[in-house]
Amino acid sequence: MTKGIYFLDKNQSLLSDLESFFIVNDMVNYLGGTGLLQQALTELQNRNDVDIIVITDNLIDASCVEALKALMNHPAKKIVALRSRDEVTREKISQYAVVIHYPFSCNIIEETIKRMSDAPSYDDSDLERMAESNVSTDNPFARVSAKNSVQTAENKEKKPSFQERLKSIQLSKNQRMANRLIPQKVIAIQSQKGGVGKSTIARELAIGVRCARIKKESVEYTPKVCLCDLDLEGADIATIMDISDSFGILTWCEDIDYEAQRSGDSLSQIRFTEDVIKERYLFEHESGIYVLNAPQRKTDAFKIESAYIEAIVENLRLCDFDVIVLDTGPNILDYTLTALSLADEIYAVCNCDMVSAKRVDGMAQDVFSKIRGFDFSKMKLLINDMTEKSAISAEEISSVLQMELIGQIPYFPEIVRINNEGVSVFFNRKKLSNKAVEYANAFRMMARRIVCADFTTEGKRAREYSVDGIETMRKKANFSVFRK
Do 289 and 323 contact (CB within 8 A), yes or no? Predict the structure, then answer.
């Protein structure tokens, strides 16, 4: 029996699948894995229970050839998984290791190990005799007909594994979420001007929606919210929420790539179960919202294609989230335009000044107008840092841009301190000032608009539920600061 197997691959999803597989299959002991060659050399240095090392060309700090050279003196047998189909390269590596194709399944590894265990050993005289033999006449297996070969291949066709069948059932369950209490919405926060408060608005809006309470008969329901940091170059959400950014969208994209290569499907067609998404890619904030973090390094943004964003948004739609908030970047890169195209509503953030208003107008006229079939009705205007002394009113900007005005957020200088502390106006540990209450009320009104588009009594009867506190908030909130 093989003592143990060790893997060199940076894809944590693959390593997790392999570990689960070998726990059930006692043919071999899974002894760990890493995507760093230097870490592998350290871990393998004093271990004598590793019989097989699997090296892939999906490492962080080395190529598979470099890793194979570095581990050449280790007594364990080697398996090298290559993406490349270059026969010259594969032939050279095959002199020192068994070569398989990457990506591979757990069953492929199992079959490869069996072949390695069953392979006979030969001395030099045996090798010389085989080299001089005639393969067509001396090999009894060469006479097997082509018909039998085809039948053997058909017989070896594998049935879906238990995990694949379970995933299929879970995905079909997710797709049956048509009977939601509130309609699901994907909302993109967008601005081509930096510094308008876009990321702060995304955070406060997500938490504000989470704080809403929906009552239907005797049941009280809290909306489920996911906040996605798709400003891949800025990546401010983790900072202003004081959460770990050690995992997130980059890990998800790597797993999408792995699943696409394994299954042969396109990147945008890859689907994951809700449990996997929440456990591996999302961070659960103390407010109850889930957060998808942007990459830690700005340069990693170049690794993320628009197809990954499409797959991620569609996967999140299949989860139980009622509202998905996308914080997008101030650019017109493919992944940003994809996120905006997939959104049900786009909140164009604007200050009451000519510069930011022209940026919103330019985005609509120069970019969105060039996208075939773009629905301009989903663009909404959101005014931030509204003051009594603004030279241009929010209504005037809305009229010029021909966009519905969905919110006016008052000027609130304390938000800088709140961002520095990584908290929220809804989860602030200090006593709120009147300005803070007014600021929070602006988000509460927007949140109630999102979960309940019609505030009228007739609308309530039609949808058969109520949003707690709307009328009270109308009486308490003082919006005179927005009127000139």
Answer: no
